[in-house]
Recover the amino acids of this structure.
């Protein structure tokens, strides 16, 4: 019985122990959580992911919302901003083709699609031709209103698209707002780039494609090239007016109106026995009312007597033919051409005046129909160029300066720098233009024969290239040129690009 009070005393003593002691006891027995090191994410992947979300969201926003239907004069158009590497402005006029302008440098391109002609407004212009005089102001107002509208809508579309996609991806409002803010900053940077690089004179060098490429009347003549196209709105008004007239008469594009103060020279080169070239040349002579055809060589491929019959269509081209020998043309070829009427063969610096312009040229000193490389070829070309330069200097001292020099190889053509305003060449099968150190302009023509049979050696066929050179009849200086490029074998594309010498630009 004595043990019962002892046990009770023990229990009571334990109950009297401090709760703090009990807490330490149970904490010691409870298992502690394991400590692990968590690797923090790297900031670069997160930034790249945000950038991808912003760009994709902005692009989707532009696709969904970023276009505006705007009436421009009698036309119903759609204006759209699209992502682009090169920027610029593209005007699509279906089914006539397109007009491209290098108006700005930014990752955004303005597309203007002419959807249809409004019959009511077009008929009003037909019934009241006096309204055409006020069409320009109307078009300017419509374009300004449409451009502002598409800019505002695109801004909303870009920010909304980036924000919505950010919310869908991250599921956090803060990250979604960050995506929207980044998109807005990106759009503002693009707008600043457009403002800084805006070029209102880009209409001076348009690029036409489709049926519009066969409408030189839209471009004008050498006398009014500089003064007529001063701002973008005026050109668009003129384009709308011409297209309205085109729909009215339901006929082909307006014919070219020749200017008596302009001499038009067709520059061809490196035909290389392509019979299709003669039909193209004849078409260009008729369409552009060409006064002179200039051929800078390699008309043949092997220069044999059996090939001479290929040259017979030259007599029916409808314009004087000025020719210099290329490295694929033989002396047999040259003698055959010298016997043809209306053909002017230039060699050894001899000069002739044709259609008011004085030409001089020299034949290629090499004859390499097999494309072999002859030892000392570069020196012979430079020597030929030096002979041509000496002849040009003699003509200048005699009071009969030459306006246009001709050679086949560019290396020979460069030797006449400072002796003549313009020198023409070919040989390399691609178009080029440069101002030489002493002020002479070198114009290199591509292959008007599409490189001949060599077009089959490459994956893509070479284009057929030629140029229309516009000269002022009084000063005999180059005013502008149209670079014409046709698709090669099996292709049907056509482009005409207008170019102006810098000294002629306002």
């Amino acid at each position: 019985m004595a043990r019962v009070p002892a046990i009770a005393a023990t229990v009571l003593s334990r109950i009297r122990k401090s709760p703090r002691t009990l807490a330490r006891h149970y904490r010691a027995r409870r298992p502690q959580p394991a400590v692990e090191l968590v690797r923090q994410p790297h900031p670069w992947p997160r930034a790249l992911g945000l950038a991808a979300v912003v760009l994709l969201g902005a692009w989707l926003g532009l696709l969904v919302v970023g276009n505006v239907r705007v009436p421009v004069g009698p036309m119903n158009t759609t204006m759209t901003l699209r992502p682009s590497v090169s920027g610029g402005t593209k005007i699509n006029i279906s089914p006539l083709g397109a007009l491209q302008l290098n108006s700005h440098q930014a990752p955004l391109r303005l597309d203007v699609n002419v959807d249809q002609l409004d019959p009511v407004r077009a008929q009003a212009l037909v019934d009241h031709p006096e309204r055409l005089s006020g069409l320009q102001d109307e078009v300017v107002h419509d374009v300004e209103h449409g451009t502002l509208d598409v800019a505002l809508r695109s801004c909303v579309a870009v920010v909304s698209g980036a924000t919505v996609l950010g919310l869908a991806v991250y599921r956090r409002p803060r990250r979604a707002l960050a995506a929207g803010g980044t998109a807005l900053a990106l759009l503002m940077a693009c707008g600043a780039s457009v403002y800084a690089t805006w070029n209102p004179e880009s209409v001076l060098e348009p690029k036409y494609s489709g049926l519009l490429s066969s409408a030189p009347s839209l471009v004008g003549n050498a006398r009014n090239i500089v003064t007529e196209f001063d701002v973008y709105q005026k050109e668009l008004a003129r384009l709308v007016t011409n297209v309205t007239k085109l729909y009215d008469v339901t006929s082909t594009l307006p014919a070219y109106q020749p200017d008596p103060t302009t001499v038009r020279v067709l520059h061809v080169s490196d035909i290389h026995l392509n019979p299709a070239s003669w039909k193209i040349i004849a078409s260009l002579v008729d369409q552009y009312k060409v006064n002179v055809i200039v051929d800078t060589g390699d008309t043949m491929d092997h220069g044999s007597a059996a090939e001479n019959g290929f040259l017979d269509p030259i007599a029916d081209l409808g314009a004087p033919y000025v020719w210099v020998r290329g490295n694929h043309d033989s002396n047999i070829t040259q003698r055959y051409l010298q016997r043809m009427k209306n053909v002017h063969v230039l060699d050894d610096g001899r000069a002739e005046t044709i259609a008011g312009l004085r030409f001089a040229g020299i034949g290629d000193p090499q004859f390499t129909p097999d494309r072999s490389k002859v030892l000392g070829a570069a020196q012979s070309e430079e020597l030929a160029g030096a002979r041509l330069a000496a002849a040009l200097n003699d003509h200048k001292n005699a009071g009969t300066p030459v306006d246009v020099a001709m050679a086949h190889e560019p290396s020979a053509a460069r030797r006449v720098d400072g002796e003549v305003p313009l020198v023409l060449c070919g040989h390399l099968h691609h178009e080029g233009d440069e101002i030489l150190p002493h002020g002479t302009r070198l114009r290199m023509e591509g292959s008007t024969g599409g490189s001949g049979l060599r077009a089959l050696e490459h994956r893509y066929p070479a284009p057929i290239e030629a140029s229309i050179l516009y000269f002022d009849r009084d000063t005999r200086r180059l005013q502008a040129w149209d670079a014409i490029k046709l698709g090669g074998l099996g292709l049907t594309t056509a482009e005409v690009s207008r170019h102006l010498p810098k000294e002629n630009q306002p």
Notes: Residues 135-170 form the longest helix (36 residues). The chain has twelve helices and 19 strands.
